[in-house]
Amino acid sequence: MRREPPRTAADYAPLAFPALMLTVFFVAPFSIMIAVSFFRRDPAGFYKPDFVLDNYARFLTAFFGSVLGFSLMLAILVAICCVAVGFPFTYLLTRCARRVQTVWLVCLLSVLSLSEVIIGFSWSTLFSRTAGITNIFVALGLMDEPVALLPSFGAVLTGMVYQALPYTILVLYPALVRLDPTLLEAARTLGCSPLRAFFNVVTPALRNSIVATLIMVFVFALGSYLLPQILGRPQHWTLSVLITDQAIYQSNMPFAAAMAVFLVLISLALVGLTLLIGRREEAS
To answer: In this predicted structure, what is the pLDDT of residue 4?
Structure first.
């Protein structure tokens, strides 16, 4: 069936309420944040209206550049780990019986109900010295005494991968379910092993879906706030933590707004790239 384009003003009426909500809750606050990012900090107060580029120039300092670089590097690692684990798992899940798939999907949805606070303190307990998993290693004779595995970069990465992995699987699941099974049958007929068929047939066929999932997880991890604070040291804090520190504790709202604008622009650019990849996939 062919969709008819809107022809009259009444055809656009259903878009009025979403457009109003988008304007009130996104366009207006984002515009105010952009304006504040050019204001000058007032040591005696909050800020005063002005037009300066000092807030954006501070990104060029070594400290804030390292925080930005660490945030981007951490988000990239989380995205790669989630896809590296989630893509084979989702593929194997789609090969199971429908009842097994339902059970696993319900379990994944239950994980999504956990807040970031619960996930952070759960992993902090597992990585602790008194009640952590190292006590199991001591009982098995693999370690002499229990040790604390946090705060550390590995703890931050593990917690963020755990949080983002269900989203990764749920995003990849529809694409893998729609995969034509005759492609794998043809590969097996030509002598490919299951592992080789997975890498040579399944992975190239879903290349666009994998890239879109990587971008989605990257955007999701880029805004992580609580887990780096609970599981990591100050050098493991992300840009989101630094924004809160500058806005609340340092009373530097213009610089916090500049960092927030930068973070939002990166997220919007990557979301736009994801939509572009999705359109190309539909066209192909």
So the answer is: 64
